[in-house]
Amino acid sequence: MTQNITGYQTQMGKKINNEQIEQIIKAIIAGKYSWACVLILRFAGYNPIDYIPYRTYIRLLKNNCLVESSKQNKIDTEAVEALSLKSTWLHL
Fold first, then answer.
1. What is the value of pTM for the model shown?
2. Helix axes 54-91, 33-43, angle to 10 degrees
3. Is residue 56 part of a domain?
4. Is residue 15 in some structural domain?
5. CA pair distance 80, 82, nearest whole angstrom
């Protein structure tokens, strides 16, 4: 009674690194459990579309990827403003 599970073994070989674990934990702490599930699937080498309805997956991507990029843009803008204020003070 042996079963060929080579596909299963190759999937189990992929490891999640520390940065990816931090992203998953941040999603859980923020209460974004569905997004955490998507991240776990992606980082483990699975296609989330195989497990989550397409519309749900797209909604999660829009809500989380766009929010993250807008936060990063805001941080970048604030950093540029802080640097320009600092250089203004240096010239006075």
1. 0.60
2. 90
3. yes
4. yes
5. 5
Domain total of the chain: 1
CB atoms inside a 10 Å sphere around CB 39: 23
Please give, one letter per residue, the 3-state secondary structure of the chain: CCCCCHHHHHHHCCCCCHHHHHHHHHHHHCCCHHHHHHHHHHHCCCCHHHCCCHHHHHHHHHHHHHHHHHHHHHHHHHHHHHHHHHHHHHHC
How deeply is 9 buried, as exposed, middle or buried, from its count of CB atoms within 10 A (0-12, 13-18, 19+)?
exposed
* CA Rg value for the chain: 20
pLDDT per residue of the chain (92 residues) written in tens, 0 to 9: 555 555 554 555 578 899 999 999 999 999 999 999 999 999 999 999 999 999 999 999 999 987 665 555 554 455 545 555 444 444 44
- Containing structural domain, residue 52: 6-91
Within a domain: residue 1? no
